């Protein structure tokens, strides 16, 4: 089926905020998107040209969903791989490929992949239960990470000493050596079927001190050109080793000794690229579409310094979402809120993000602080 024909259909597994922003990019290319999500009120539900309410973990649901789609992609890794493998075997294009998702779905397999392919990462030990963690007290301090099922900081537990072993997971996991890092940085790389790769500028991420998710980021990262080029090279090498088609977000540690180590990757659009909608010639969402649809990759050059602030539900509030401080935020030049269409808030739920663009770094940082103090989600 020709790409720009009326009958072409792109299947999207997942209907959350990433899917919502992907839909906005798809409108510009007049791509018909069919989305699947178990939540009838998912952010994509009311705006997708076609929306199916169902589980992306169920084999039959995913298999039937993909029957009338020419290309199938994802906005979440935790999907039914067997159904995608069958669709791929029957001639459907599935990007990122199921074999790539299989590596990334399990952090144990993912870390082993880095080691086997000489990709720089922190030292780690595979563990099956608390007893296995207890046997590694000489390896501490470290982070215990669940092999499967963790996201946005869930499934990660710091084990600083033997006194913390009771916090370890009673499940297949890994123990990753705690890295004394100077910064956390990320590079998003796109790769299409033709093997063309294109990176976005390196960003610097600041994580929430308690909830281990990105609180805000700055782009470009304040690092040397040598570190910038090394981070981009690692991202490209990782994408090439995986042979991925689509977007790959590579989160990395910059150590105090100047090493760049891969932390984790995500085979999709990512929180570390939300600012690109306003700050770059091609957004990460358009780039993902270009990559999975076999189109030439777009120019990722930034036309401004930028920051992105995650808009999280305030602690202590659950219920119908109420946004306070929106007028004050919108009155600031270069401030652009993106709300995700989630009607209900709860503590630290991602409800939206705010992109701030300003070529003066001091002004940019001042606006970020102003937005963080002004715009709140309560109930």
What is the topological layout?
Layout (H helix, E strand, L loop, with lengths): L9 E4 L3 H12 L4 E5 L12 E4 L5 H7 L5 E4 L6 H9 L3 E2 L3 H8 L1 H10 L7 E4 L2 H5 L7 E5 L9 E4 L13 E5 L3 E11 L5 E3 L3 E5 L6 E6 L5 H18 L3 E10 L4 E7 L9 H4 L4 H9 L13 E7 L6 E2 L1 E3 L1 H5 L4 E5 L4 E2 L4 E8 L3 H14 L1 E3 L1
Parallel strand pairs: 1-2, 1-4, 2-3, 4-5
Antiparallel strand pairs: 6-9, 7-8, 7-9, 10-11, 10-12, 10-14, 12-13, 13-16, 14-15, 16-21, 17-20, 18-22, 19-21
Helix pairs in contact: 1-9, 2-3, 3-4, 4-5
Account of the 3D structure:
The strands form five sheets. Strands 10, 11, 12, 13, 14, 15, 16, 19 and 21 form a nine-stranded antiparallel sheet that branches. The protein has a five-stranded parallel sheet with strand order 3-2-1-4-5, sandwiched between helices. The model has no long low-confidence stretch (mean pLDDT 95). It is an alpha+beta fold and 379 residues long. It is globular, with a radius of gyration of 20 Å. It has helices at residues 17-28, 59-65, 81-89, 98-105, 107-116, 130-134, 225-242, 276-279, 284-292, 326-330, 361-374; strands spanning 10-13, 33-37, 50-53, 71-74, 93-94, 124-127, 142-146, 156-159, 173-177, 181-191, 197-199, 203-207, 214-219, 246-255, 260-266, 306-312, 319-320, 322-324, 335-339, 344-345, 350-357, 376-378. The chain folds into three domains: 10-94, Rossmann fold, CATH 3.40.50.20; 123-176, 2-Layer Sandwich (Dna Ligase, domain 1), CATH 3.30.1490.20; 181-378, D-amino Acid Aminotransferase, Chain A, domain 1.
């Amino acid at each position: 089926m020709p790409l720009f024909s009326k009958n072409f259909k792109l299947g999207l597994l997942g209907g959350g905020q990433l899917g919502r922003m992907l839909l906005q990019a798809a409108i510009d290319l007049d791509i018909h998107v069919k989305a699947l999500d178990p939540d009838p009120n998912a952010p994509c539900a009311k705006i997708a040209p076609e929306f199916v309410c169902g589980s992306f973990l169920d084999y039959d649901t995913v298999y039937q969903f993909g029957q009338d789609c020419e290309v199938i992609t994802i906005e979440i890794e935790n999907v039914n791989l067997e159904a995608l493998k069958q669709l791929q075997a029957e001639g459907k294009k599935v990007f990122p490929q199921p074999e790539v998702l299989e590596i990334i779905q399990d952090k144990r397999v993912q870390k082993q992949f880095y080691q086997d392919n000489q990709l720089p990462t922190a030292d780690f030990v595979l563990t099956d239960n608390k007893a296995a963690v207890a046997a590694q007290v000489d390896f501490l301090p470290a982070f215990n990470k669940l092999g499967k099922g963790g996201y946005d900081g869930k499934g990660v537990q710091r084990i600083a000493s033997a006194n913390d072993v009771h916090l370890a997971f009673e499940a297949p996991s890994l123990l990753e050596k705690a890295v004394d890092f100077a910064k956390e940085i990320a590079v998003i790389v796109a790769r299409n079927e033709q093997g063309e790769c294109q990176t976005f500028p390196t960003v610097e991420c600041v994580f929430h001190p308690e909830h281990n998710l990105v609180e805000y980021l700055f782009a470009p990262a304040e690092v040397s050109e040598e570190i910038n080029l090394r981070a981009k090279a690692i991202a490209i090498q990782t994408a090439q080793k995986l042979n991925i088609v689509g977007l790959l977000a590579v989160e990395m540690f910059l150590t105090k000794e100047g090493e760049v180590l891969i932390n984790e990757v995500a085979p999709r659009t990512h929180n570390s690229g939300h600012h690109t909608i306003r700050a770059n010639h091609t957004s990460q969402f358009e780039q993902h579409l270009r990559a999975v649809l076999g189109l030439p990759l777009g120019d990722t050059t930034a036309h401004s310094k930028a920051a992105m602030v995650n808009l999280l539900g305030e602690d202590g509030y659950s219920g119908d979402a109420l946004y306070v401080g929106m007028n004050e935020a919108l009155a600031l030049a270069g401030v652009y809120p993106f709300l995700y269409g989630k009607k209900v808030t709860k503590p630290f739920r991602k409800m939206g993000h705010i992109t701030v663009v300003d070529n003066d770094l001091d002004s940019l940082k001042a606006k970020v602080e102003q937005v963080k103090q002004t715009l709140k989600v309560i109930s």
